[in-house]
Design brief:
This protein is an alpha/beta fold. The chain contains 13 helices and five strands.
Length: 320
């Protein structure tokens, strides 16, 4: 489809063979990353091949590559399905390596051996440099990958116990299992569990605990107006809140609006709702009018206008 065909693996050159398809959303994310690597190392002996696989419509591949433009300048190949199979590369590479999902990348080293198989977003300069200069330890990399997979499986199993307890509304058990799950996470990822803790608090109808968590989450992300806005919106609209702290919701929405200098229509929409629910209907209408005027998407503008119409009638619109 694009670039010179690779008829064999030349000694002294390394290859990334990346399997992808036009219908694969994650593949679209990895393509620019691969392109950066291809450009950075092309003069040092690296050749990148985008091997289309499991494609639903081969005719869609060439237009896709053209549309990607300078984000996908490396070589691109279709699979050979002339024998009526799903494709020869699908069989001799993906199936043979027990790879059941895409995107998937293989590195062939300068001696013609496959030394690395994993998700292409895990490819980095250090790995490629070592492959090119012959210092990459394939056995150590494979062992590290196995250990990582085992850890991921352990995390998945631990998370499933949390999810099952929450689904069964066994909130004390969910709290206990979440604490066990947190111990398996790196320190920098533990804060991401506060949203789950909030769900558990709401399930228990522990509203003081829920609001303490919201304040903690807000304080931890003072620099993020979107976090402030999402927290405010949840207080204002989530049916799990039988007791809504409207003052806190307005405070959070105000912080978000100040940070965005009153120019974000979705944040203005949240603040307007907080004002309306607190009884300041005139200010709610004023803020909603501004939100409508700033919206540049027609669907968003229609939705914001419908809310404005409700406020003008003195009615609080329902939300999904």
């Amino acid at each position: 489809i694009q670039g010179e065909p690779v008829k064999d693996f030349e000694k002294g050159k390394a290859y990334i063979v990346e399997f992808w398809a036009t219908w694969c959303g994650p593949c679209r994310v990895t393509i620019p990353h691969l392109n950066e690597l291809a450009e950075k190392f092309k003069d040092k002996g690296l050749i990148v091949i985008g091997q289309d696989v499991w494609e639903q419509d081969d005719e869609a591949v060439e237009p896709f590559v053209k549309k990607m433009g300078n984000k996908m300048t490396y070589r691109v190949a279709l699979d050979d399905k002339s024998d009526g199979s799903k494709g020869k590369m699908a069989a001799t590479w993906m199936k043979a390596a027990d790879q059941n999902g895409i995107p998937a990348a293989f590195i062939v080293d300068t001696t013609g051996h496959i030394v690395w198989i994993d998700h292409p977003m895990k490819l980095n300069d250090e790995t490629i440099t070592r492959v090119l200069n012959g210092t990459f330890d394939a056995k150590a990399a494979a062992a590290a990958a196995d250990a990582e997979r085992q850890q991921e499986a352990q995390l998945q199993e631990a998370w499933q116990t949390v999810a099952r307890a929450m689904k069964a509304k066994e909130w004390d058990s969910a709290t206990e299992k979440l604490a066990a799950f947190a111990k398996l996470l790196p320190e920098e990822q533990k804060a991401g569990l506060d949203g789950v803790r909030l769900d558990i608090s709401l399930g228990k109808k522990d509203y003081p605990g829920a609001y303490d968590l919201i304040r903690k989450m807000s304080d931890a992300r003072k620099d993020s107006p979107m976090v402030q806005n999402e927290l405010a919106w949840r207080i204002l609209t989530d049916a799990q809140f039988e007791k809504r702290d409207l003052e806190l919701a307005e405070t959070l929405a105000t912080q978000a609006n100040t940070a965005t200098e009153g120019k974000d229509p979705s944040i203005l929409d949240t603040l307007a709702r907080a004002k309306f629910m607190r009884g300041d209907k005139a200010e709610a209408v004023k803020l909603q009018e501004k939100a409508v005027s700033l919206a540049d998407d027609e669907d968003a503008k229609k939705s914001l206008q419908a809310t404005l119409d409700s406020y003008r009638k003195g009615q609080l619109p329902e939300t999904e």
